[in-house]
Request: fold
Amino acid sequence: MARKGQKGVTVGFVSLGCPKNTVDSERMLAEIAQGGLLITAEPDNADVVVINTCGFIAPAKAESIEAIRHAVVCKRRGTVKKVIVAGCLSQRLGEKLFSEVDGIDAVIGLDKRDSIVRIIRETFSSDSRGAYLDRATQRRGDILDDRTRLLITPGHWAYLRISEGCNHRCSFCTIPAIRGRFRSKPQELVLAEANELVSAGVVELNVIGQDTAYYGRDLRTTDGLAGLVKKLDRIDGPAWIRLMYLYPAGIDKRLIETVANSERIVHYFDIPIQHISNRVLKAMRRGDSKEQIKRLIGDLRRAMPDVTLRTTLIVGFPGESDREFAELLDFVGWAHFDALGCFKYYREAGTAAARMPGQVPEPVKEQRMDELMLAQQEIAFAKNKKRIGSDLRCLVDFADINTVKGRFYGQAPEIDSVCIIEKCSAGPGEFINAKVVGTKDYDLLVEQL
Reply:
């Protein structure tokens, strides 16, 4: 029984999780807008709330569950009529979500993303809950088309997803179980999407995937990511092209040379290494060794003396000894990463690591993470101080009466520090020349020249 005329249905949207999830949210929002439904900026007062969830690790799951429960509370108060849950947590838990949070009206799997309008209409008109969890996309190996998106990033930069899924079997990770095996997006589709984004005013393309360095292996291409990047570099428009999520084992000399010789592919490498102890790396089922990682860092810095290196690490992996943590700490002091993210190991159900002996106590994990981040803080602050007096080219991201913020090439959006710009006359999406005049914790204080 229909509760309300479909034309007037308002949809509130909550997007959680990583940049890959952001792209899915932008596709769904575009479908919703083109489908004639009304998108509202107030999800607490919408006819239908869609929550695009993350379910990668325990904190992400907790954040998603909290958002779902909030929407259900609004539903019970009468300000929301239907609650739809999409994204990775839906894919991971499926119909179990109905018992996890009472009051959900529909659960959507990842491959049903582009059917969001039909699902919203069916859910709004029904008194029973629905599960849309067909896994056909993962079985066939298809990859969804990400063109036509309603950007929720600032209009001048966007994510460009070049692959889906993951073939790595890291013992701590749930991604392959959630998003399926690795599938490269065909080059022509990537280039078409890049041109579409640039035509809409995007000046910075941030290339993403579960492992962008793996690109093309399933397509049996001979040039892989380096070949794709060369073609992206020839597109007329983007000022910056940034490569994210590059597993170290996939970074070869050809890719390094391609980035080093380009004026638009920024000298920025985001390399999640997770650990440096060879024993821990083996237990994690990573395809790298301490020696290979150190050699790669040396190769990158020789090819690009101005390269910015970012990494992520895990502390407290099962069996990690005091000696192995000390080895990791020494390595961080040697590597002098420009940016570093650190996560405590989370015991995720269904992963091989969850069954391993030697689970590290929570207080030990907390202490190790604090110690590691304090060591990295000293490195980052020292690097910032060395930049005082230098000139930078900055992209303005945000401007109001009191504050202007932007980034230089060594700062990726949403995850890195920023430049706080003084005496700035430019607006978002514009590039300026600036001088570093000071620091504020991890951020740089700069003045427009």
Q: What stands out?
A: The radius of gyration is 23 Å. The chain has three domains: 6-139, 140-386, 391-448. The CA atoms of residues 315 and 367 lie 10 Å apart. The first strand starts at residue 10 and ends at 15.
